[in-house]
Amino acid sequence: MEAYTGLDSVGLYLSGGASNYDPADSLGGIISSKLIMGMFPIFTTPIQGLVIEDATPENEEGDASISVVASIATYTPPDGLSGSGVTIAAGERKVLLGADPEKAVRIRRVSGQTFAGIATFQLVDALNGVFSMDNVPDADRQAGSVLYRGLFVKALQDADDVICWITTDGQSSYALASEVSESDDSIQTISDESTAPGGLAWEDAVSEGTALDLGNLLEDETIGLWVRRTFPASGVVSAKETVNFHLQFVAG
Predict the structure, then answer these.
(1) CA angle (30, 210, 168) in 5-degree steps
(2) Contacts of 143 (CB under 8 A, 6+ apart)
């Protein structure tokens, strides 16, 4: 199967054990096999053999499509123009770009299945994900709340100068901290989401200029990443807050 490259060289994974797929249980321990998706596809018209593994948040929400003719796949993002076609053989994964290269999806072609036609789908943001965390009940809204999640940054190919930060349009504030992972790709485990992990240096990483520096990562190397969400006491009632996680690196 084709390796991850370029835009796709670094991935984010939940913690909580190899089989954990629940962001709420991402509280440290061994790395999960679950890759954290930037956006989620809801298919209107699927085609056989096409799996969308991830989509960049720059796509924004809306209707998108992938056209496949003679093993050449072309992506059209929401409210955007199509990018160049990419040939994808059975069993391969490739990144498809829109005319705007920041609007991208990673797809996989399943062997032994038909791979032709036009797939239409809606891209939607994740709710209550590993960064946004749980809804804020009224008691926590009044008293304030601090919650934690543990995850992993993994280099799928060599990556240099890896940095990350979080931006939000809501009342919550965020901080990030890194933890060196063990040889079995594990980090410390916290007993519940309100318990702070120990021995970390927290950074108010809210912009590229204040980003958390994760350094250089070799292929298959992991590093633990902790997220702290602080909701202020006496916060106002709001229906939704948008949280954006930014990951920047130089592909090796």
Answers:
(1) 75
(2) 233
Kindly tell me the sign of the dihedral angle through the C-alpha atoms of 34, 37, 42, 46: negative
Strand partners, 177: 226
Kind plus residue range of the DSSP H or E element containing 118: strand 117-124
Q: What tens digit of pLDDT does each residue of 181-208 get?
A: 999 999 999 999 999 999 999 999 999 9
Question: Are the C-beta atoms of 163 and 208 separated by less than 8 Å?
Answer: yes
Q: Is 160 exposed, middle or buried (0-12, 13-18, 19+ CB in 10 A)?
A: middle
List domains and CATH numbers for the chain: 6-37+126-251 (2.60.40), 40-124 (no CATH)
State the Cα–Cα distance between residues 235 and 211, nearest whole angstrom: 26
Give the tens place of pLDDT for each residue, 38-74.
Answer: 888 999 999 999 999 889 888 989 999 999 999 999 9
Q: Is 141 helix (H, G, I), strand (E, B) or coil?
A: helix
Q: How far apart are CA 238 and CA 48, in angstroms?
A: 41
Q: Taking the alpha carbons of 102, 106, 151, 235 in that order, is the dihedral positive or negative?
A: positive
